């Protein structure tokens, strides 16, 4: 069951927090509609797509993670965070900010820092040349294979309607972050499910994350920057295996 969050100040709607059973919160990358998580299947879990770029902000990864960590405080049932690209950094920061609120992490196509990011000119383009053509090229680079036409239309609609200020704040904030010396504090199970054909985040980024997070599992998938769309079947298989190993076996 999927629900897109479009709430105001908090990144997660109250009905999600109040779910009595296992919950998955899915965080897309900066500028991407949370509908990229539409193909994800997780039997036994309620999945909410978190539209963290809505509301009043601020939109730095640390600020979004702080709001998410505070929103999760009342939950007692298991919570899993799926994070894609910039959303992956938000998921990692949330787990660091409130370890007791996050029982597992599934991180896709990001890294502990952006020094080897394949698109370091993105902030300048957003600031100075964020034309429809530039937005479409940005979205096309998210995939190794053509996404479904309906999803591409939704991605273009979402990005076209998004004010540039919060997007710029988020991507510039990302480039000031280096989690290399903090990830060793993560104690929940973590899966790095990385599309190995990514033109922005290479496999080296995935290997760095897996080496820095204690006990992290690395699975390379036959997709690009957005493997939950590019190779949904392989992504779902990796997710299902991970959840079965670490969470489903412990549920009553």
Give the strand content: 5-15%
Q: Uncertain segments of ≥5 residues (pLDDT<50)?
A: 1-8
Specify the overall morphology.
globular
Question: On the 0-100 scale, what is the average pLDDT?
Answer: 93
Radius of gyration: 16 Å
CATH architecture: 3-Layer(aba) Sandwich
Supply the CATH superfamily name. Answer: Alpha/Beta hydrolase fold, catalytic domain
Count of alpha/pi helices: 10
Q: Under the CATH scheme, which class?
A: Alpha Beta
| Strands ordered across the widest β-sheet | 1-3-2-4-5-6-7
Name the assembly state: single chain
Order of helices and strands: EHEEHEHEHHHHEHEHH
Termini separation (Å)? 20 Å
State the secondary-structure class: alpha/beta
- Helical content class: 25-40%
**How many domain units?**
1
What is the third-level CATH name, the topology?
Rossmann fold
Query: What characterizes the major β-sheet?
Result: 7 strands, parallel
Number of strands: 7
Task: Indicate the topology.
Elements: E1 2-5, H1 14-17, E2 23-27, E3 46-50, H2 61-72, E4 79-84, H3 86-97, E5 104-108, H4 122-128, H5 132-140, H6 149-161, H7 164-174, E6 190-195, H8 203-212, E7 217-221, H9 227-230, H10 232-246
Parallel strand pairs: 1-3, 2-3, 2-4, 4-5, 5-6, 6-7
């Amino acid at each position: 069951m999927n629900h897109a969050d479009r709430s105001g100040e908090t990144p997660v709607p109250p009905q999600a927090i109040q779910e009595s059973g296992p919950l998955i919160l899915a965080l897309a990358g900066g500028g991407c509609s949370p509908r990229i998580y539409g193909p994800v299947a997780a039997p036994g879990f309620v999945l909410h797509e978190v539209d963290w770029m809505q509301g009043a902000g601020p939109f730095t990864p640390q600020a979004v993670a702080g709001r998410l960590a505070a929103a999760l405080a009342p939950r007692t049932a298991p919570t899993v965070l799926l994070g894609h690209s910039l959303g992956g950094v938000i998921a990692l920061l949330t787990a660091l900010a409130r370890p007791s609120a996050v029982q597992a992490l599934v991180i896709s196509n990001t890294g502990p820092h952006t020094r080897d990011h394949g698109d370091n000119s993105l902030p300048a383009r957003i600031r100075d040349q964020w034309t429809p053509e530039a937005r479409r090229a940005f979205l096309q680079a998210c995939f190794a294979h053509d996404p479904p036409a309906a999803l591409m239309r939704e991605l273009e609609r979402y990005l076209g309607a998004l004010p540039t200020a919060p997007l710029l704040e988020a991507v510039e904030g990302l480039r000031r972050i280096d989690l290399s010396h903090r990830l060793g504090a993560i104690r929940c199970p973590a899966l790095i499910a990385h599309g190995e054909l990514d033109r922005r985040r290479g496999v080296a980024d995935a290997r760095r994350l897996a080496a820095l997070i204690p006990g992290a599992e690395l699975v390379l998938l036959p997709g690009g920057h957005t493997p939950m769309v590019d190779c949904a079947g392989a992504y779902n298989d990796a997710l299902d295996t991970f959840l079965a190993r670490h969470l489903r076996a412990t549920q009553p």
